[in-house]
Design a protein that fits this description.
It is built from 13 helices and 15 strands. The protein has helices at residues 39-46, 94-97, 129-132, 142-146, 151-161, 178-187, 202-211, 224-232, 247-256, 277-280, 297-305, 324-332, 334-337, and strands at residues 2-6, 12-16, 28-35, 62-69, 81-84, 123-126, 133-135, 170-174, 194-198, 215-217, 237-242, 257-265, 286-288, 315-320, 341-345. The chain is globular, with a radius of gyration of 20 Å. The chain starts with a strand and ends with a strand.
Length: 347
């Protein structure tokens, strides 16, 4: 089969590789019908995730069709249309029993495109099929479901839920890329009084308005703290969500949040950020981090099925799977291309 193979920082290619095969009795082989590229893939290619070794097939998001199953798989059958989640769950360890699947100690967690070969390929082996694949509801298109593999549960769980967003809150979201836009869409479910999107690219701020932000700020032209203080009686944001993964965006969040507020870090950081405890120790601020657990995926599937979330709007560019190198170029140059998410389809 063909797959996108990582060969070290800055190096990738669309290669011929062996077809995946069943290894464990709980495995499934899934034909990849639709996949996408994540900001984390770009971090890997920059060398920010050194645990990913040369030769790895990248990708951790897909919608596909089950081709084969192990002898101990009971919830899916060949021919079933499924969502391949970015997080795999053994279903048995302490963390899985607590629905903290991202911390799975039994061989799961974030492994696709990281510790084992991933989804940017014609076929993928998915461990723990019973607890890691989700049947796709009838009548919902692949692209909508694909957004539930990573960005929507990540933004919902690690951003909105960890941040404790409540009705009437002022929510500041630093970064209006795919994760930031998903955080906007998910924060709206809790009826905040203001959703403030902050980004250096005007095109992304325009997108943020379409996804539900009522205030947009470009820090190159306007001080975010001054604007947010004007909205909140000089208190600051109730919740600040970091959705970039660079030191400056995290440190901005700690400046924007009010005393007693929450900073929810979602971004993947490749460099150290400074924690200014000399300023924060007295302000009762809660800072959370996390890897998505995907416990919310069934809930999000219901919201998509009933039309309360419309995730197909995240997809701005379409490619055939063999054109994945062009798709990477388009996604990596989002400032020039306006890309939010790309969809790569088999046919």
């Amino acid at each position: 089969m063909k797959a996108l193979v990582y060969h070290g920082p800055g190096l990738k290619s669309w290669d011929d590789v062996p077809d995946p095969r069943l290894i464990e009795e709980t495995d499934a082989i899934v034909r990849v019908d639709t996949t996408t590229i994540c900001g984390t893939d770009l971090h890997i290619l920059k060398g920010d995730v050194p645990e990913v070794t040369a030769g790895r097939i990248l990708g951790h998001e897909a919608v596909g069709t089950v081709e084969a199953i192990g002898s101990n798989v009971n919830t899916v059958r060949p021919g079933d249309r499924v969502l391949v989640s970015c997080v795999s769950s053994c279903g048995r360890c302490r963390y899985c029993r607590e629905a903290r699947y991202g911390q799975c100690q039994g061989g799961g967690g974030w492994i696709l495109g990281y510790k084992i070969d991933g989804t940017q390929a014609e076929y993928v082996r998915t461990p723990f099929a019973d607890t890691s694949l989700y049947p796709v509801p009838a009548g919902v298109d692949d692209e909508s479901i694909l957004m539930l593999a990573d960005i929507l549960p990540t933004s919902y769980e690690v951003g909105v839920i960890n941040g404790g967003v409540r009705p009437g809150d002022t929510v500041a979201i630093v970064g209006a890329g795919p994760i930031g836009l998903a955080a906007i869409a998910c924060a709206r479910l809790y009826s905040p009084s203001h959703i403030v999107a902050i980004d250096l690219l005007d095109a992304r701020l325009d997108a943020a308005k379409q996804f539900g932000a009522d205030v947009t700020i470009n820090p190159s032209r306007e001080d975010p703290a001054t604007r947010i203080n004007s909205l909140t009686g000089d208190l600051g944001a109730d919740v600040a969500i970091e959705a970039v993964g660079v030191p400056e965006s995290f440190e901005m969040c700690t400046r924007l949040v009010r005393p007693g507020g929450h900073v929810a870090n979602v971004g993947v950081h490749g460099k150290p950020a400074t924690l200014h405890l000399e300023d924060l120790w007295i302000r009762d601020i809660t800072i959370t981090t996390g890897l998505v657990d995907t416990w919310s995926t069934p809930t999000l599937l219901k919201l998509v099925r009933t039309g309360q979330l419309k995730p197909d709007t995240f997809v701005t560019h379409h490619f055939m799977l063999p054109a994945i190198l062009d798709a990477y170029d388009t996604f990596a140059r989002a400032g020039d291309t306006g890309a939010i998410k790309v969809a790569l389809t088999r046919t």
